[in-house]
Design goal:
With 121 residues, the chain is an alpha+beta fold. The protein has a single domain (9-95), classed as 2-Layer Sandwich (Double Stranded RNA Binding Domain), CATH 3.30.160. Helix content is 50%, strand content 14%. The protein is built from 4 helices and 3 strands. The chain has a 3-stranded antiparallel sheet, covered by helices on one side. InterPro entries: Mito_Transl_Release_Factor, Pep_chain_release_fac_I, Pep_chain_release_fac_I_sf.
Length: 121
């Protein structure tokens, strides 16, 4: 049985092919659903749209709550998981989410600061 998600058939096909290429099966995945947090109001507070996936062989965990749809989040979580597995197989260092967030904040502050004093020449 192949799992399909609420995304285009092209994206579902890409996901199946990528999983086969990396040797990842649905049986390797532990999937849990929890309530999302943040914007979305009553809908988000009542439904378990946040998806947590763990790849048992590698121990990689992914949590996704980008969309209000559980099905879309399941697709996005799998896509992120496959990207991380691919980086692991290539020997690249795993990205730390906290470090990435701090880098983005620093860049944003720098852009805002440079624009603030540009016109006051």
């Amino acid at each position: 049985m192949t799992t399909t998600f609420a995304v285009s058939e092209e994206k579902n096909r890409w996901l199946r092919e990528k999983m086969a290429e990396l040797g990842v099966t649905e049986g390797d995945l532990d999937e849990h659903f929890v309530r999302s947090s943040g914007a979305g109001g009553q809908h988000v507070n009542k439904t378990a749209t946040c998806v947590q996936i763990r790849h048992r062989p590698t121990g990689i965990e992914v949590k996704c709550m980008k969309d209000r749809s559980q099905s879309v989040n399941r697709f996005l979580a799998r896509r992120e998981l496959l990207e991380r597995i691919e980086r692991l197989l290539k020997g690249e260092a795993p990205r730390d989410a906290r470090t990435e967030k701090l880098k983005k904040q620093k860049a944003r502050r720098k852009r805002r600061a440079s624009g603030k004093y540009e016109n006051n020449g």
